[in-house]
Amino acid sequence: MSDNVIGVDLGGTKVEACMLDANRELQGRERVLVEPEGGLDRVVDNILYVINAAAGGKSYSAVGMGAPGTYIDEKDTIYGVPHTPIYETPGFMSKLRDKLKVPLIIENDANCLGLAEYFASCSDKYSYVLAVIIGTGMGYGLILDNKLYRGAHGGAGEIGHTTIDYMGRLCECGRRGCAEAYLSGSSLSRRFEEMGCNKIGAEDIYKLYLEGDQFAIKLFDESCHMMGEIFANAVVAFDLEAIILGGGVSNLPIWYEQVPEFLKKSLFGIPRGEIPIIKAKMGDSAGVFGAAYLALREKGVLKF
Ligand SMILES: [Zn+2]
Questions:
Q1: Short-list 116, 110, 117, 166, CA closest to 138
Q2: Whether residue 256 sits in one domain with residue 134
Q3: Are residues 147 and 273 in the same domain?
Q4: Which of 66, 110, 251, 264 is the 20 to 30 A CA-CA neighbour of 80?
């Protein structure tokens, strides 16, 4: 049986696949548009195309796939994909599975990101870690006792939709005061605009912060405090040892300079020592590598 496995990162716009060997070394990689507007058969064909292209004619023995939302096995359905509703079609995964002829393991895409970052940065040091991915939105992967923790329905770790102010900003999920309504890339940008400033991205607001702009300073002071509180909530709830921060917004150095202090002040109870905030390392590769790790676990090469 082949030692190679495939990882697939299914997004709403693009689908990417990679082939890894048993040492987690990259053997091949491909990315194409997923074309959901062309219907489910087109999507399946595009997924199969990237898998074959990444394999480059070599054999493989399992496929791991990260997808938005949560896949429930018994229903053979992915739930919670409002931006690409066609993925919620019952039987979508069976359609793919029937054509693959090797085991297919499906996991939430943010869990795959978290998993890859955990192995890249701190699996040798820590066993209780939350990976928080902040881009346009927010995603999470929770590792407890060295294992990806899914919860009863696969939805564990969603700290961005825990509230820090029940009268606060309206979140896309319908609740008020969620962390995501303040700290995602789009929320940072919107909050800055609401201060009467131009609507610009987080990196540009950070440039203004460095130049001493009073609105940018206020925005980042508040945001670092909030991030410290929300991370402290997670640390206290799960007794975590570290937080990994990834995604586009995680590139701003201010989080690593200021959030640990707020986090430390808000911790409760037992002595814990420093809770490091670790910058993610894998960038764009995290999703597809994390998906391949699911396949390596299936083969008994990785344990988590
Ligand atoms: Zn929310």
A1: 110
A2: yes
A3: yes
A4: 251
The whole-number average pLDDT for the span 93-111 is 95
| C-beta of residue 141 within 8 angstroms of C-beta of residue 114 | yes
Asked if residue 116 is part of any domain, the answer here is: no
Please tell me the distance between residue 163's alpha carbon and the centre of ligand 1 in angstroms.
7
- What CATH number should be reported for the domain holding residue 22? 3.30.420.40
Mean pLDDT of all residues in the chain? 94
The identity of residue 201, as a single letter, is: G
pTM of the entire predicted model: 0.88
Chain position carrying tokens 């491909």: 30
Q: Residue 78 is which amino acid? A: I
Question: Cα(23) to centroid of ligand 1, in Å?
Answer: 39
Q: 77 alpha carbon to ligand 1 midpoint, in Å?
A: 23
In a domain, 67, yes or no: yes
CA–CA dist 70, 137 (Å, integer): 17
Same domain, 165 and 259: yes
163 and 274 housed in the same domain: yes
Alpha carbon of 184 to ligand 1 centroid (Å)? 11
C-alpha 261 – ligand 1 centre gap (Å)? 25
Choose among 194, 217, 192: nearest CA to 202.
192
Host domain of residue 173: 125-280
Q: 208 and 88 in one domain?
A: no
Q: In this structure, how many other beta carbons lie within 10 angstroms of the beta carbon of residue 52?
A: 14
Using one digit for the tens of pLDDT, what is the confidence trace for 254-265?
999 999 999 999
Question: What spacing in Å lies between the alpha carbon of 238 and ligand 1's midpoint?
Answer: 20
* CA–centroid distance, residue 140 to ligand 1 (Å): 13
Question: Which residue has 């990679």 as its token pair?
Answer: 18
